[in-house]
Amino acid sequence: DAGGWQSDTVVEDMDLSLRCYLKGWNAIYLPHVDNPNELPCTLSSYKTQQFRWLSGPMQILTKSFSNIMRARDISIGRRLNAFWFFMRYILFAAITVGVLAVPPVALWVEDWDWSWPQIYFIVSINFALAVYLYVTPFSIAYLFFSVAIGYFKLWAMISGLLGLEKSKTWKVTQ
């Protein structure tokens, strides 16, 4: 009823889930169900997995944007929820750009003075990142790791939005 399995994205399960959601279907989350071997065993495999997991939702967003807008079987709240699902990716991209922009702005902008606009810029970007990451014992390590590969994740999202050939390649990760 939702259109069946389609292989025009690299995250076809997410695509089918969104189409079911737009038909008004509901799902039940079962937190006790285990899925072994979910984490890739090497950094290279992790990057491959993350590229697929970030470019794929952008493929779905470009493919389904108008479907979300025109969905008749769901309320406006559910439609907004569908958009919010994709906004977390857009927020990640904005925060990544902001975090990566801090050093050049802080160090290389002419006539840098530590006035309130500059301090606000640095504090707001870091606060946004802290809210995004939540506060856990692993937040600092994850922060460094995320910033280190942030440019890579951003490229994956842009690749998916633009429909570049690399974003259409489905590689199995170990």
TrEMBL record:
InterPro entries associated with the record: Glyco_trans_2-like, Nucleotide-diphossugar_trans
Presence of the UniProt keyword Membrane in the record: yes
Glycosyltransferase 2-like domain sequence ranges: 2-127
SUPFAM superfamilies (alphabetical): Nucleotide-diphospho-sugar transferases (SSF53448)
Transmembrane segments: 82-102, 114-135, 142-164
Membrane topology: Multi-pass membrane protein
Subcellular location: Golgi apparatus membrane
UniProt keyword terms in alphabetical order: Membrane, Transferase, Transmembrane, Transmembrane helix
Pfam family, one: Glyco_trans_2_3
Protein name listed in UniProt: Glycosyltransferase 2-like domain-containing protein
Upper classification of the organism: Eukaryota, Viridiplantae, Chlorophyta, core chlorophytes, Chlorophyceae
